[in-house]
Amino acid sequence: MADAAANFVRIAEPLGPATELSVKSRSYWSSVLGKLRRDPVTLTCAGILVLIFLSAIFAPLIIPADPYKTSMIRRLQAVGSPGNLLGTDELGRDMIARLIYGGRLSLLMGTLPVINALLIGGLLGVTAGFLGGRVNMLIMRTIDVFYAFPSVLLAIAISGALGAGLMNSIVALTIVFIPPVARVSEAVTTSVRGLDFVEAARASGARSWTIIRVHILGNVLGPIFIYATGLISVSIILASGLSFLGLGVKPPEPEWGLMLNTLRQSIWVNPVVAALPGTMIFLTSICFNLMSDGLRSAMDVKL
Amino acid sequence: MSPPPLDPRDRGGKAQPLLAVTGLKKYFHLKSGLLSSAAGVVQSVDGISFTVRKGETLGIVGESGCGKSTTARLLMRLIDPDAGEVIFDGETIGTHDGMSIREMRRNMQMVFQDSYASLNPRLPIEESIAFGPRVHGIPRAAARERARSLLEQVGLDPNLYVRRYPHELSGGQRQRVNIARALALEPRLVIMDEAVSALDKSVEAQVLNLLMDLKTNFGLTYIFISHDLNVVQYMSDRVLVMYLGKLVEIGTVEAIYNRPRHPYTRALLSAMPSMDPARRTTQPPLTGDPPNPINPPSGCRFRTRCAFAEEVCARAEPKLVESDEATLHHVACHMAIPGSGHSAATRGIAEAAAS
Fold first, then answer.
1. Domain range spanning residue A242?
2. Which chain A residues are within 8 Å of B136, Cβ to Cβ?
3. Which of A36, B64, B117, B242 has its CA 20 to 30 Å from the CA of residue A103?
4. Structural domain tally of chain A?
5. Is A22 among the domain residues?
6. Signed CA dihedral, A200, A204, A207, A210: sign only
């Protein structure tokens, strides 16, 4: 032992308390918030989305006009005409009222399927990723079957089979979004499961559910959530598409996709008004996309 | 070796080994596809047996890929062994009338090599340390109190560090946290799987000294896995040498480092960097890569790289035989077995090497 001891001279005798400066510890979420605060694009997008959501929720308080009230005389008024600031549609209904009320259904059809898919697909994916082996094989190969169809086609097929209507199109869109969410969840969970701290948690005798709750979820929910935010824009577009094809909401309900469909015939008469519902769809989905990108980079902290 | 302090958890008495491992075996089956059967079998740990006595440090050395870490994970039951029996202080682990795996994990803990990957990046270190006690039913406040006192024990001021996140600590500090985490369940045996290998030399020395102090303070027994022969010599009471999933030699640190019997151990030791210019390495100790563990050589697994390999080495696998009782020295080599058929068997390895 003599020469070994010589190789390992006791360099630091009993270690005193660390003398370095005390840095105020920042939790993960506070550092994410700090990054977001310096990201004008994400903040603007989030602001626009909040405005759109709030106006949809409080539509009756903001807009005195009735979105269903038709007027044969005042059809297809141009943008800026007195009494109808954004003009009127082909049945003379006020466009502002219809766009704001339309947000209710469009946003519902954009978010609800994604939330459902997040719950179901997330559960499937995390289970498959954590358990691995045969369970993983069973779940993921079943999920793969849905990838055989393009998402638009799948949504149309399911809606067509279930019949038109709000609930049915939400069910159809949920089914469309489960596979991608499950796949992303599975991939993230598999990568986290292999890390040493999960092994260490197992070595401490914790049960699987405790490990998932304490160690897995905190590390996988972020990426899954960001991915789902990006899906909302796709969902809004798909939902509009279903309504456009007559598989979603039925007239005279205001809904952006349906409005786009009915105003289609007037595109030569009043192109600006005809493009308005499309503009709303575009604005909402691009805001969701940019916000999801911003969240991704803010949460991608090299810890 | 310091005399093992009295431990109220002790069951078998002083003579009973803390850990007795018999015939531990793990083969990994490589699969090439969905429906095909095994494409190959990696004999990662192939029937090794050893004991760990109470209060000692058993060093495990060997090249990378020889099964050191797999052995650690098998002992912790992070992977299930194919065969073999592990007895903790007289109680067989994982059997009906023995010790449950959960109970074993309270008595046996592990420190991993990667100090960063072994801490949850989303949890303050206090929570990481308190997690184990919480799992075993200790109330939150008491678990946190234990975390604070352990942080102090490993040389980190709890007032400064409890709410920190792993990315706010240096590698050495993180490894201290990992050690505190391993000690949080008050284990009797701690497995250090390359626990200091990733640290730089000065920090490594500090952590090694910390481990020595903790061992006395908590009455611990260590299994110390490393590829660094100097570190193992410094830390260990006994040393176990592994080659390709087999135990080739085991004995006290003096016996292994001063009188190695197995040609592989000799090669390993001659590759050890020395501080003494008079003892510098003059000839390459080993040539070639270790054989593929998927299809290991027949007989003695070391024979393909051994300078003394003879026909018997390919034919029969050498048994682990006692070579010196006083130093608990056992070796698995045909040259150490009288009458094995090896030409050097009667003369002994030292002579064969000299001639």
1. 44-65+86-299
2. 204-205
3. A36
4. 1
5. no
6. negative
